[in-house]
Specification:
The complex is a heterotrimer of chains A (327), B (423) and C (290).
Chain A (H helix, E strand, L loop, with lengths): L1 H23 L2 H26 L8 H15 L7 H23 L4 H21 L9 E2 L6 H24 L2 H11 L1 H6 L4 H27 L1 E2 L1 H5 L1 H14 L6 H20 L4 H16 L3 H6 L8 H13 L5
Antiparallel strand pairs in A: 1-2
Chain B lengths: L7 H20 L13 E7 L6 H20 L3 E3 L2 E3 L1 E7 L4 H13 L5 E3 L4 H14 L3 E3 L5 H5 L5 E3 L4 H15 L6 E7 L4 H14 L3 E8 L6 H10 L3 E5 L2 H13 L6 E4 L6 H7 L7 E4 L8 E2 L3 E2 H12 L5 H20 L7 H12 L2 E4 L2 E4 L16 E6 L2 E6 L17
Parallel strand pairs in B: 1-4, 1-5, 5-6, 6-7, 8-9, 8-10, 10-11, 11-12
Antiparallel strand pairs in B: 2-3, 12-17, 13-14, 15-16, 17-18
Chain C lengths: L1 H19 L2 H10 L6 H19 L6 H24 L6 H24 L14 E4 L2 E4 H23 L1 H11 L1 H6 L4 H26 L7 H15 L4 H22 L4 H15 L10
Antiparallel strand pairs in C: 1-2
Helix pairs in contact in C: 1-6, 1-11, 2-9, 2-11, 3-4, 3-5, 3-9, 3-10, 4-5, 4-9, 6-7, 6-9, 10-11, 10-12, 11-12
The chains are: A mainly alpha (327), B alpha/beta (423), C mainly alpha (290).
């Protein structure tokens, strides 16, 4: 397996470059890199449920925002808790919320699930807007911590952990096989003895707490949040587009899509930023990707169908036998 | 389910180009931007050039640009007997605070600007302030009107427009004094979005001081329908309806009121009215709407860069085809603050890090007269570094034109009160 | 009591207004199995057409309604087959790719409108703009009544078309089972193009009315998409009749909450209602969704 060693070598080189990056580029590009890492991580967190389990979460920003608000509320006066504590608190709140919301919502299928999760995110926007303790629409300010390297390495650590967890859980474990099985045919997976409700909920919670960690770092980094800036639907939209662009249900797709889209957006923004035309360019790019790269950028490099597991094939056969039009 | 590969070569071609594009994109950080040759002052503009605040974002850009163009036509900013041109750099905040912070870092680090001109929205301004602090780069904000900006006591940010809580409440008092028969009751609608809500709160808190009675205070979500709230207020029949919002909800308030055949004796709004697009969209229905402006082309002020307020208005009209409103004027005046501070500082470009801190101190000592009015920044209190000198003028749309109707010494036309019923 | 009745009317009319751009949306989902993110884009485009009819030609905004149908019907007819190809492509998640395509289309439309027509908020003037009628203690805004009647007419027209014509039968057969319909000799591709054209045309017509009731702004498209999605899901995806019921329900909730609880809570109430209804009744209130 020569290609495997090559892959590992490339990965190692990438890690070295990422760790040394603060010495190589100026603060602005470090900021862009910080943003790119955040989006790569967020796209990966969306992909856990959307790509591996096949449940399209349109309200993923809800969890990003919960993490951000937890940190903002707990770090500000009068509590003034340290950042590490607030991140953990954010994870706890998000996990609890994801269980309560996920258990009933995950019974919905397809578009109903997508729009129910969107509705949930909108509920949170409205809640944060109406309530006083969240600062209402005026938002919350955090104590500024002006160390760009801290945020770069925080995002890097979070992103690396996210990808390691995804690799271990979804690509290299029985859990991952169960998740993929239920994506490909849920009734068949259930018939094979998989507790689909539990597996779905576990994936949902994992994907939610990952997003919440990035939300917490984001809030501390940008020092100011309001309901739209962390719960807004455009945050979820970006994650979805990044995953589709990179490759749905793959390990590296979200990283490629997230970094590519964010950096291209920032480049277009730098050079044609004084008009709204870049929005049209972005739209055209999405249309072209869907039409000509339906498997995403990662799909271009994917090995041919050799990689399918036995379970995949079994499920596929069962699905065919079950027949029918499953839209 | 299986991906179909129509031709292997196309796949390889696409793969190759994807790699090339990615490599190109990732390689960009290592390409240094070319440096400008002639010595100029560099100013960065952060504002909303896309997203929901695009209208106001472009107004602020226009204002900052007018100053730069004018000053450059005159040879540049005068420092120690020499003149230096101003070079402008732009960063779009996409109506999003986080992108505003990206833009600030880019302008400071990549473009190496000496000074920033602040965003249209208060949210972006709050997110940019820590970046200014980090790099010790002063910022002059010609638009942000939320009092929250100044409560944080930003060391490097200065506001030319008075915070909205100092103007909207006062304007109700002016209106009450002008009304005959005297107005007694007020209903306040605030759109629940940044700035608009604070405007609504300003109106609400100003009611008592104006000797009026508050009968309703309603916050409406920007995506919501206005018929329920207008019906509710119509049932209370207040003399004055005061609205905090941007131009789009304001247009909808007028349209919805008319379609429900509700006309209060006075309708006062804070911002959008002064924007020509408001009267343009509503036509005759805009007539009678009252607004608050901290500047109008008719104010009796002048300076030696722009001349009188009328001269400025004529220049702006020539450039954009639209009459300037106070945001545009405030942004142009921000440039005047910079020019004055640079002159007093007496340092030639490019400024060093110490010069920029000294520039911040020079800006803090600003005390000038401009076409926009007097500018002097607060040194204490809740409006730290905000210029609360301008006195709000009550304006009213009459025959499609914006005219000053109060306070009495500034009035150019009599105040129409009560408003006639819809035809 | 007067306010109570007025609120009821306001709520029903809000529902009628929302229904104008959700009914055809449901048809598209039912037949093409695509959730069209671009729905808000078609609404705003219709609004701009209305604005230019008034501003450039001095015509009444209502004149734009048939023009919008023809113009955007044609555009939709051209886009329909592309959407059909993506939806029925052999990728892993064709329904998601179709959604992404419409999202890209929406973004393209939004960026194009911002670039071409700028950022000023526009208005569509019609013969009924600002006109009202007093019925007892209740003020009836006529332009909203026109929109509600439009929604009812579209729903009725679609009903007759779907249940009383041969082509309607073909559409229903396709909605029920695409493969069987194709076996019966229905040209699914062309039918999809027609349906998407019909939908884009109707939605743009609704857009002219939205411009007359509210205002026209490139950035307001997302708002319409949001409401179309939510009403469609509450109704049960693909259920045309359910769309009317769901829109009226949401309208009435919004109006009563805004009037009697507080306007700032109105959207919190309707989004929470939507979320809870979905949990209790996963296929929409009438349990008739696909």
């Amino acid at each position: 397996m020569k290609s495997r060693w090559l892959g590992l070598l490339l990965l190692g080189a990438l890690l070295v470059v990422l760790v040394l990056l603060p010495l190589l580029v100026n603060n602005y590009w470090l900021r862009i890199a910080t943003g790119a890492l955040m989006w790569a991580g967020l796209a990966c967190s969306w992909n856990m449920l959307g790509g591996y389990a096949g449940y399209i979460n349109f309200g993923h920003s809800a969890f990003f925002g919960l993490g951000a608000y937890a940190t903002a509320l707990l770090m500000a006066d009068p509590l003034g808790l340290p950042f590490t504590v607030t991140v953990l608190a954010g994870i706890a709140v998000t996990a609890a919320c994801a269980v309560v919301i996920g258990a009933p919502t995950l019974r919905l299928r397809g578009a109903y699930f997508a729009i129910a999760t969107w509705a949930f995110a909108e509920v949170l926007i409205q809640f944060a807007t109406v309530m006083d303790f969240t600062g209402g629409i005026g938002g919350l300010s955090l104590p500024p911590f002006l160390n760009e390297r801290f945020f770069y390495f925080a995002m890097l650590a979070a992103a690396v952990l996210t990808y390691l967890a995804t690799w271990a859980l979804f690509e290299r474990s029985r859990f991952g096989l169960k998740v993929k099985a239920l994506r490909d045919h849920e009734p068949a997976a259930e018939a094979m003895g998989i507790n689909t409700a539990l597996v779905k909920l576990q994936t949902f919670v994992l994907s939610a707490i990952t997003a919440s960690v990035f939300g917490a770092i984001f809030a501390y980094w940008v020092t100011f949040i309001n309901p739209r800036s962390v719960f807004g639907g455009d945050i979820t939209d970006q994650m979805v587009v990044m995953v589709l662009l990179g490759g749905l249900g793959t390990l590296w797709g979200p990283a490629i899509g997230g970094v590519a889209l964010f950096v291209v957006n920032r480049l277009i923004w730098m050079y044609w930023g004084d008009t709204a035309f870049y929005i049209a360019i972005l739209g055209a790019a999405i249309v072209l990707v869907v039409l000509f790269l339906p498997n995403g950028i990662a799909g271009l490099f994917a090995r041919r169908r050799g990689g399918a597991t036995v379970l995949d094939k079994t499920v596929e056969k069962l699905a065919r036998a079950g027949g029918g039009d499953r839209n | 389910m299986a991906p179909t590969y129509r031709s292997f070569s196309r796949r390889r071609f696409l793969g190759g180009s994807a790699v090339a594009v990615t490599a190109g994109a990732l390689g960009m950080p290592f390409v240094r931007t070319a440096r400008a040759q002639a010595a100029t002052f560099k100013a960065g503009v952060i504002t909303s050039l896309s997203g929901e605040n695009i209208l106001g974002g472009n107004l602020t850009k226009r204002g900052y640009d007018i100053w730069a163009d004018t000053v450059n036509e005159q040879g540049g900013v005068e420092v120690a007997g020499e003149r230096f041109k101003v070079e402008m750099f732009y960063g779009d905040d996409q109506s999003n605070p986080a992108t505003g912070a990206d833009a600030a870092e880019r302008l400071i680090v990549q473009n190496e600007v000496d000074v920033l001109f602040g965003p249209y929205t208060s949210g972006s301004t709050i997110a940019v302030q820590p970046i200014c602090q980090k790099y010790q780069v002063p910022m002059i904000s010609g638009s942000a009107e939320s009092p929250n900006v100044w409560k944080a006591r930003p060391e490097f940010n200065f506001g030319v427009i008075p915070a909205v809580d100092t103007t909207s409440g006062l304007s109700l008092g002016v209106l009450a004094k002008l009304s005959n028969p005297a107005a007694r009751t007020v209903a306040v609608i605030g759109v629940n979005e940044p700035f608009s809500k604070e405007t609504g709160e300003g109106f609400r808190d100003g009611v008592a001081a104006a000797g009026l009675e508050l009968v309703a205070y309603e916050l409406v979500p920007p995506e919501g329908d206005l018929t329920p709230v207008i019906s509710k207020i119509a049932a209370l029949n207040p003399d004055i309806v005061a609205v905090g919002g941007h131009e789009e909800p304001l247009i909808n308030v007028v349209k919805t009121s008319k379609s429900l055949n509700f006309r209060p004796k006075a309708l006062i709004m804070h911002y959008g009215v002064t924007n020509p697009a408001f009267a343009e969209a509503l036509g005759a229905d805009a007539d009678g709407t009252t607004g608050v402006a901290v500047w109008l082309p008719t104010v009796p002020y002048s300076d030696d860069v722009f001349g009188t307020a009328q001269d400025f208005a004529a220049l702006a009209q020539k450039k954009s085809g639209q009459e300037p409103d106070y945001t545009e004027a405030g942004c142009a005046a921000s440039g005047l603050v910079l020019g004055d501070a640079l002159k007093r500082l007496g340092k030639k470009p490019a400024l060093t890090a110490e010069d920029r801190v000294a520039l911040k101190d020079a800006i803090a000592e600003t005390d000038i007269q401009t076409f926009y009015g007097p500018i002097k920044f607060e040194k204490e209190g809740n409006h730290y570094h905000d210029n609360i000198q301008p006195v709000p003028v009550l304006i009213q749309i009459q025959g499609g034109k914006t005219v000053a109707v109060g306070p009495q010494e500034a009035a150019a036309a009599p105040f129409t009160y009560p408003l006639p019923a819809w035809k | 009591m007067d306010l109570f009745l007025q609120t009821l009317l306001n709520g029903l009319l809000i529902g009628g207004v929302i229904a104008t751009f959700t009914i055809a949306f449901q048809l598209t989902f039912g037949v093409l199995h695509v959730i069209d993110f671009a729905v808000g884009g078609w609404v705003v485009l219709g609004g701009y057409l209305g604005y230019y009819m008034v501003a450039a030609f001095g015509l009444d905004g209502f004149v734009a309604i048939p023009v919008a149908f023809v113009l955007f019907g044609a555009v939709g007819y051209l886009i329909g087959p592309i959407l059909y190809n993506v939806r029925n492509s052999r990728t892993a998640r064709p329904e998601l790719m179709a959604l992404a395509l419409t999202f890209g289309l929406f973004t393209l439309l939004r960026g194009g409108m911002l670039t071409a027509w700028g950022f000023n908020t526009r208005n569509v003037t019609t013969a009924l703009s600002g006109e009202s009628l007093m019925v007892g203690p209740v003020t009836v805004p006529l332009i909203r009544v026109a929109a509600a009647l439009f929604a009812v007419a579209i729903a009725g027209g679609l009903f007759i078309f779907l249940y009383r014509t041969r082509y309607g039968l073909a559409i229903r057969a396709t909605a029920e089972n695409r493969h069987n319909a194709a076996l019966m000799g229905v040209n699914i591709r062309r039918l999809s193009a027609n349906v998407y054209g019909l939908y884009a045309g109707i939605t743009a017509m609704a857009g002219v009315l939205m411009g007359a009731i509210y205002s026209v702004n490139p950035e307001s498209g997302l708002r319409y998409t949001l409401f179309a999605f939510f009403v469609a899901v509450l109704a049960g995806l693909g259920s045309v009749g359910g769309a009317l019921v769901a829109a009226l329900l949401l309208g009435v909730i919004e109006a009563y909450v805004a009037t009697y609880v507080g306007s700032s809570y109105s959207l919190l109430a309707i989004f929470s209602t939507l979320f809870l209804v979905l949990l209790v009744s996963p296929r929409g209130i009438l349990r008739r969704g696909l």
